[in-house]
Amino acid sequence: MKQTTGFKIQAEDRQSWGAITMVWIGAMICVPALMIGGMIGAGLSLESAAIAIIIGYALICILMSFMGMHACDTGLPTAVMAGGALGEMGAKYIISTILTISCVGWFGIQAAVCGSSFSSMVEGMSGFSIPVWLSSVVWGIVMLLTACFRFSGLKWLNKIAVPLLGIVLIYALITNLLSGNGAVLVGYQPAAPMSLVNGISLTVGSFVVAAAISGDYCRFAKNRKDVVKSSVLGVLPAGLIVLMLGGILAICTGSYDISVFLSTAGLPLLGLLALILATWTTNVSNAYSGGLALSVLLGQDEKKSQITTAISGVIGTVLAAVGILNAIQGFLSLLSAIVPALMGVMIADYWLIGKGKIENFKIRKGFYAPGMIAFVIGALIACMTGGTFATIPALSFLNIPFFISSINGIVAALVVYILLTKAFGRQDNP
């Protein structure tokens, strides 16, 4: 198919596993991860928090490895690969739409958060007031320009940002410990304990959408072994360090805010720089994946993805500037909750039904009913068990909290897909 061929990575485009690892490390070091770490630290002992984080990110690494090896084999991004399990039209009109809206929306929210924090910190340091909308637009454009350079832009940004962010956060930790704030860590017990499962669920939820779209980056890997190495080494150590740092600093300072972490260390300027870089390295991925998904939705190919990335980023930046993103954050959270079910049908189709062999992978025409049904059921299970419907009065009766919602959705989609495929036969071109 022309569009599939247009997205396929060529041999000369393949990257080292180290380059892909740095992209994942850059994505892990972000403001939301520090906040999630603070939430886990507030609810678990430090030992239990470490266990929850390790288990949670181990699950993420497994999912990323399967999705990434699939992408490495085919050379295709997630929105195109989904055509194997949901049919070409299902991937184009359903999955690409969900991924486009989700990535564009979160790009805008991150740009707005960065703009607001930048304006606030500049005013605190200098007394000079910068309108939040202007700050959001400027930083949105800067992040977008990096994303338009595609993978090369991500490599360049992360080589600079990751080491600097690591140094700044470790300095903040050491300063807080030496200042006496670390005394609260001795014999620390959370005031409002949470269960270990909830800690694992928070960890998984913080990166599960990234796992679903990991094929966008892992398709650049040279082989399956490099996919696994980059996924495990890029996520597990960095995730453990960042979330534990977030937890410890939140306990020491009494706040989840990264600017507070760094202000207590006496580093307002470096705190501002860390905040920008932490948002930048993550948000570039939102624009890049949103651009790929939009390109698939519009029937374009890889050559046009720079244009669609620019369009995605501009829309997200405009939404951030006009301040309407807070009104739709619940909707974006709903989309994020249903995305993981996509992994269930894709893993079932390629690895279980297709036995992980590239010769068994085909993009089906039209909508593939077993895949679409399994995806919808998996998404509903994830929403029901994750509390997504709790805030919607008319649907609150569907709220049935259980285990880890995203994993529930993945497993449900996987099982239903296999059952339907076995019952009706595997059709390559329905």
From TrEMBL:
CDD domains: SLC-NCS1sbd_CobB-like (cd11484). It comes from the Bacteria. Keywords: Membrane, Transmembrane, Transmembrane helix. Pfam families: Transp_cyt_pur. The chain crosses the membrane at residues 21-44, 50-72, 93-118, 130-149, 161-179, 199-220, 232-256, 268-298, 310-328, 334-354, 366-392, 398-420. InterPro entries: CodB (IPR030191), Pur-cyt_permease (IPR001248). GO terms for cellular component: plasma membrane. One of its GO terms (molecular function) is cytosine transmembrane transporter activity. Its main location: membrane. It is found in: Membrane. It is a multi-pass membrane protein. Belongs to the purine-cytosine permease (2.A.39) family. This is Cytosine permease. It comes from Pusillibacter faecalis.
